[in-house]
Amino acid sequence: MIVIGEASSVIALVQLGQLSLLKKLYTEVYIPHLLYAEVMPIFSDLALSSSDLLLAVKNREIQVRSSWEDEPVSPHIHSHLTKAEADAVNLAFELGNCYLLASDRIIRKEAKAAGIISIGLLGLLHQARKSHLIDALTPLLDQLRSKLVQPISERLYTEVLQSIHD
Fold this sequence. Notes:
single chain, PIN-like_prokaryotic, 56% helix, alpha/beta
């Protein structure tokens, strides 16, 4: 299965040291060119190393690709999303039969309206735990809660951990 990564999810995976989960869970991993250009400066602003992402791109574990579409798949997408986010939705629509990895509810809502299946970062980590690719979910969720601008609610935190019995 193919996955298209969105900026906040890719940044969070780098922060967690778990970027490699993408290639372990999916056969093909893409990030839109606009997203790649957008996240590289963010790494320096957050004092993060971009080496994991650069290495994954260099090794072709993650492919940087632009949507061929100049127009959004839905006429109202650009009014709600950044150009990079809209490019991710367009790319997912273009490739078809893929997932859009997006933590932001607005992006996932736009993807759904365009008929695209999306998965959030917590869903990806849940899937990784169920596939025994990570030993425990609790430490990763705790790291996310301490690093994210929009923290994970207590309800969602508990719900995810209970569903995996972690």
